[in-house]
Amino acid sequence: MADGDDFDAFYRDTSQRLFRYAYGLTTDSSEAQDLVQEAYARAWQRWHRVSGYEDTQAWLRLVVTRLATDRWRRLGVRRAAWAAAGPPPPVPPPSEDVLLLVAGLRTLALPLRRALVLHYLLDRSVTEIAEETGASAGTVKSWLSRGRAALAAALADDDTRRPAATQGGSDAR
Amino acid sequence: MPADLDRLFGALGAHADTVPLAPPGRARRRGENRRRGRLAAGLALVVVLVGTVLIGTVTIARRQATPAVPPPPTVDFHPLVPVGEPVPIELGQDFAMALVVDDRAFVGGRSADGHVRVGALDLRTGRPAWPVADLGAFEGWHGLQAGPEGIIVAVPGPAGGANVAWMVLDPATGRVRWQTQGDELHHGSGEPVVVISDPVAAAIRGLDWATGQERWRVPLAAGESPRFLVEHGSGEIPPVFGRFAEAGHRLLRLDSDGLLRTYDARTGALLASRPRATAPGPVVPVISDGVLYSIAGSPATRVDAAAIAGTDPPSTVYTARPGEAVRSVVPCGPGRVCVTVDRSADASGELLALQARRPGDRDAPAFRELWRRPIATFGAATSVAARILTTRGQLYDLDGRDLSGPMAATPVSSGWITPGSVLRLSVGTGAGPEPVAAEGVSTGDGSTVDLGRIPEPTGICSWDTRFLACPSAGGLRAWRFAG
User: Fold this and answer.
1) 20 to 30 A Cα–Cα from B352, which one of A94, B118, B294, B464?
2) What's the complex ipTM?
3) Size of interface A-B (CB pairs under 8 A)
4) Other Cβ atoms closer than 10 A to B301
């Protein structure tokens, strides 16, 4: 079954990277696993066409992004998938850095989070992100700069050791 | 902060890589089960899936075929319809200034008696929003800024004090909430603080937007006079003059030695420092898409560029020819920068497009000139959606093709409405009470729609996607032209 072999090889080559994206987007390991499975399931449904795309991974990320915003679908399908296959195997606990970043990412609007994840987790350039999202390069850069600033603020808020009134670096009093 | 994010995302990625994923066979079975309709995938999911496939297909197809980007949609123009009666306010001294903000049009200026006055028109009802506010007598005025959250009026500071005094007005009543002084002010749209550079206090101060109470301060060395900048994304409409710009809670501070610092405007927390972002000395800075462009020299004969996130000193983008002075710089397309220059010999201007060299091509100059076009003198340029617009309404595509065509009238003011639409005001050869022609311009092909005529403005007009407002001899006037 050549199609199945092709698909399996593609899956093995790309699934970890797609999971990185899904995890960064959802900040939920279980959620991300389910979304990745669902995206590949849909790819398999139409493998003849999808396998011919210039950038199949971008298509998968698009599917993950769309599904990530559809909460009700996620909950219903996850229950059904777990019933069929059981819960995913346990994973090592995340480090403090991961927890910190995940908490910060959760405060961001989806476009900003998506841009940061594509840029930092998948090393996509501004031009590549613009092509993938259909936004202009200027908008992508705006997303990245606003996302960085919002993350910085969220991470700074998390530091309870700072003085309350005049927070900041060496400049502030 | 960029280094911290690299570390944090690196940790996130490493953690993600430890999560074992199901084998590919499970995804195939799930897909087959979906095909047989066993999973609960209701009608909404099918719609989502169809939408996803269509969007994904369109995205992929666009990359494969590399077709030309279709022009953005234009505003649905219609002839000007006056909104109510003019708000009677006499602003004959200095320049007057109008601002359209959501469902209000504000106007400010100085009257013949030297008093600074501010008026407001409710664009929904066509009636004054509140009685004209008299803010007192001043030697001059510096303009107003506004957003949905309020209005800031700038006047000369008191003798012996700072250069500027600012009054923050309640947009609902026109009453002064509080006032302060300084040299420079920053307020990002919707943000809870106003940041001022206060040489008297020798500090940058973050003041509560509602009350003026100080929230934080950063000391300034004696004689230091920083500039505040807002970064602009090249895919977006340039911030309307006077309207609070989206700043993402960031305060960008540029000192005369070229040091660029980024703060959280809400707390004064220092987020990043970037030395040598500009050459020392007087510059006109513009930040766009993570690059700080500076028009340098006196007279301005050079354009430099430095990456905000970088550490290298600025590189020169353009050096003016003899007899030229640089007036403006703006990114205008992938790897491109547009510059306008004034030529003293014949009092003319030119618009130039410059292309950055390809990465790895170190033997080539950093930027090479692509084309030049004559424009009205003292013209600046902005660029959105593969179009370049000068302040006098000349419209070009990225190849320098003039989409404006010959203009029967002399444009006096123009600006973006949306990425696909421009409003242009021109003075023609006709006389009468309404000598100024208003046109809607489609940036796709430069085609125009005649919107009608208005009285000659006595200052700066303003518009959004539906309304145009101008100060005039009879007061503040507004018209609806779309929607």
Assistant:
1) B464
2) 0.82
3) 237
4) 17
